[in-house]
Amino acid sequence: MEQSLSQMSLGYVPAQVLYAAAELGVADALGDGSRDYGSVAEETGTDPAALRRLLRALAGLGVVTQLDTERFSLTELGNRLRTDVPDSERDDIVLTTAPELWRAWGDLSAVVRTGAPALDPGTGLTAHEAMLRDPERAVKLRAGMAQAAREFASGVTEVYDFSQFRTVADFGGDEGTLIAAILRAVPGVQGVLYDQPDALDRARAVLGAAGVAERCEVVEGDLTKPVPAGADVFVLNNIVRDWDDVRATSLLRNCRAGMGPTDRLLLVETLMPPVLTPDESAAYGLTDLNNLVFTGGRERTADEYAALLDGAGFTLSSTVAVPVPTGMPDYHVIEGTPTT
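and the corresponding structure tokens:
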């Protein structure tokens, strides 16, 4: 049954119900069996009467089952709110409905008026910057990014020939998931991972676990400054989408400054279709809007990437689709060659 506009406008209610349940650890407290709401309230440090009302709302969402006036149990769907199950979605929900992002979406009208991301009035930070300043959320945010990279990293090595290069540099590579996959797939290649100091220890651990640490130099750096020369191919994975056109152009020019005429630039990004179907709007349109709200960035079409690259001294030479698991957005390797 098609929802009315009024029903759509209440979408924030179930989102906040799920966030509260995830943040309070309600599913972990319920566990495998059934429990009375009073004991769950004691374990979660919540008001019993208010928790009972939350549980009844969760029953309406199919997350729990109310067995009688006192007892509740998790459904199969609700089990994914637990932290101790393999298919847990708890951290995803905490991140997607985090207060920083929630406040930013609350300023959507102002964001659309100005074309600029919402900034916290106290700190002047975007929601993305604010979440990275929070130690607990930063860990979860980076873990989510790493998991996404693990799911398509092997696909990147399948569709693009890295054996043609001597040295691959991953700029903004965070904990090194993609560069580790490239080095494992192509034993003769050397690597460089270039990122902020807080990523480097995690990167060394990931590279070590992959058995490629001896072939990858880990370098502290800032992408807002010209990058060091020495690599044959420069890779930016899920980086450009977080930047508006002005800042993205500056970033790409910093890469161009460190490249020779035969070197290559690879952007691993999603490509937005020029015209969105209703199904694609959910996958691309809402994600694009979230990029604007969250970081000030944007999704781009192939033509928009061509224009962006042209403004930074590159020519878009190819785009290759990356095989990804079902349910993930489509990724492409977008190759740029320096303009002579």
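(Above: one complete record from the training split.) The chain has a mean pLDDT of 91.
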